[in-house]
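Lab channel / #folding
Pinned by the channel admin:
"Please post every new chain as: sequence first, then the structure tokens as a reply. Keep commentary short and put observations after the output so the thread stays searchable."

First post following the new format, from NK:
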Amino acid sequence: MKIKHSWTLTDRQLCDCELMLDGSFSPLNGFMVEKDYISVLKTMRLENNKLFPIPIVLDVDEKFSEKLDFGDKIVLLDKEGFQIAQMSVESIWKPDFEEEADLVYGTSDRLHPAVNYLFKQSNNVYVGGAIKKIKMPNHYDYKRYRLTPNAAKLKFKKLGWNKVIAFQTRNPLHRAHIEMTHRSMQKLDANLFLHPVVGLTKPGDINHYIRVRCYEHIMKKYSKRSIVLGVLPLAMRMGGPREALLHAIIRKNYGCTHIIVGRDHAGPGKNSQGKLFYGMYDAQELLKKHQSEIGITMEPFQFMVYVPDKKDYVPIENAKNYKAYKTISGSELRDILEKGKEIPEWFTYPEVASELKKSMPPINKRGFTVFFTGLSGSGKSTIANGLLIKMLEIGERPVTLLDGDLVRTHLSSELGFSKKHRSINVQRIGFVASEITKNRGIAICAPIAPYEYDRIQNRRLISNFGGYIEIYVNTSLIKCEERDSKGLYKLARQGKVKQFTGISDPYEEPTNPEITVNSDGSKSPEQIVEIIYEKIKHMGYI
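Reply from TO:
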């Protein structure tokens, strides 16, 4: 049959596709059809009653879906255009995102990464059907650790392992983790399969290159034949209890007999009300309920703390027997790194500390983006230029100005002013700014950027590499029209300029900018620049 259609997989879809092709997602053999999807939402089971807790679906845009007929073949491509798999179209439907969010993740709170993805990034049509491998995705990094389930089982067999404990991670490991795994290995007379995620994790997580380098140092803290390191290209949903079940199913497919499950396993943290999305032990309880069916035993994560009197780690439950104990939270560790302080040796190994310090320099050494937003004529460009000069005068880091008009001329000249084109323009600015920030420079951006969603996406992207400071130039529409040197507002009022922000097109005010200023004339541009500079300095970036 002639193949008429091709679809370029998103990062998440590519991860999902790879794990179906190599058997990690067994019993899945393709993207879920509607009946399986509905069954998974309501029962955590496929239509054939096999346990599978998370919907794995191919979301496509409506325009593409309209071209499809049942029985059609789709070639699935990676971003470089290489053919990964062929899919048979068996099901096409529009999901109810609210229902999916509530049933799978237990919330519609947009602070949940998977829920946010559903409503902000997912296409609104799902296509399901079996897939056939054409060529596995190509990876240039850590090939020696990219074990398939069959390769892992063969390796365990060659090592003579009978009991294998899987430990899923998405963060660097420290002394407490090593102590915990050693105790679990001794208790169970088992060996350790360290299996970190190198696909998509929680926004803001340390990238996998840093983490794997840390794991390579950690490997030396175990006897040579007692540990195997593998990496897993999983796109995490941060789905708490349901995701814990998925992690267990994957590790069963890898030949593991046990899996370590932590408190709030795969939880995304706190919701809009400041409470955890999931109960502390919900994941452990759900896995206990289904572990026999999966064929893998849950080993609870023991939270270890350092006792100075013993110069050793103990489970927190036993810490009450001692005068004092120490621990460092993730936020405390980030604070230590941001301030350039030394990480205590009781907390982590010097080799790991060195990797973290190299990749996460103090905040005043990192790149950052200053993102101005406001109406046309608000004074953004004037203030941004003033800030540029101020930063160049200091001369600590390279500085680049991405002014709205300059970007429109040199980067987005083919774009119009439709909502779609405005979003593309802001996304392009965000991408360039992220590259500047990644390389420890300073990016100053001054587009109108009228839509909150686009600004949020830029914040998420850039925050992965450095600082992000949003500045809302809150100048009134009346004042903007008064200083309209180009006469654009007048033309927009007359209907001669269409889709003009503030007149015929909306401007969505930022909900939580780091800095808000007003350029209505009560303060000079120089004074405003000085206010902004001092606030950035107070935040620690300079």
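NK: The chain has a mean pLDDT of 92.
TO: also worth noting, Residues 35 and 301 are 36 Å apart (CA to CA).
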